[in-house]
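USER: Fancy drafting a protein?

ASSISTANT:
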Amino acid sequence: MGRRREEQDPDRFLRVRGSHFHYYRRVPKELRDLDERGEFVRRALDTIDRSKARTARDLHEAADNALWSSLMVGDNPQAARIRYQRAIKRAEALGFVYRPLADILIAEPLDTILQRVEATIGKPHSSPLIDAVSGAVAPPDDKISKALQLYFTDIARDEIRSKSPDQRKRWKAKRQMSVDVFIALVGDKRMGEITRDNARTVHKYWLDRIAPEKGRADRSASTGNRNMGNLRSLYADYYRHIGLPEQKNPFADLSFSDKSKRSRPPFPTDWIRDKIFAPGALATLNDEARGIVLAFAETGARPSELANLHAGVIHLDHEVPHISIEPRDDPDDPREIKTASSVRKVPLIGVALEVFKKHPKGFPRYKDREASLSALLNKHFETHGLFPTDKHTVYSLRHSFEDRMKNARLDEELRRMLMGHTIDRPKYGEGGEMKMWQEELMKIVLPFDPAIV
């Protein structure tokens, strides 16, 4: 009877100090060890008007009821997330924007607050509807490790749906590493507990790798920026996902200057002709890996693009034989292309044409296995002395292809299109112009011994 009488008291939990009302409430005894506020909850309501004080009291009361209920059932982030999402939907159904209690009291005019209260008249104090309208349901507060898993399964689902299994694996691994570093440095903190100092700690870790006070750097600025960017995106997308997009991001504006970007040096043309295309230079590679290297040198297409070609995009029976580099739209076998500008057609000339005559269905051995391909090719080139310097990698062949086009004075927009770089106007057409592309590329075709294919 005492509890019911208290709930019916219109001035419950209200006290007057001087001329202003305060919210004053005892914390349940069994929860005092869990509620950090101690034995009593005290809040100034900043009003001398009894009606306004009752309205504010109702909101604080609902918030405390929700808090104590969650403490009694234990810490369950998944349950908290479900309660929060349901509260958002209930508030929207009644025509309100869901806001946490503190934001309602600070940001909304009294008329809107009163409308919220009117919407709850006649409802039990423990009603989910009251929780929703009064902003009494606390947002979920997952640990960063859990937030990352939520990011993988829910938040970024649309971003990864078109990636191949290997692309998805590498995409996840990069973000997992960023979070692993964070946890190793400051702990597996709840998202709401991450501070600017925590973010600075991570920033300093990468700074010491990128620009050590002594010794040589073992990481690049782009690596540091990518890792800080992963944490920044995770934080922003997590709070956007739970309905708090305005949450201040502790990782904001923490980056590294990258004025010394290193470009891979190109192979000299005579080195490609005399060393890489020399009979026997690639003989110990398997047929598919060798074919990819040779096609790479004469198309400039990325090894990952070549490795994932299939019969449907290798056109040997056209007037101008060519390959089409495009995403795979098959939902059972998707694959992304790096950028929109990377979708393109490349005429086949010289050794590249001979390679695809031998491999008209592509290179299935390396489909979705570009990391293994890259490791194999770089090891072969290093072992057999096919690098002019220790700064070269197999990928340098792409830069060589571009340089050869520049030196032959091919049109800049044609060069950009063939390389898959962005151009500032509509792309070249097809049809007759494919013939022109072929004729232009014949200016840079390299001689080769058919035996190397």
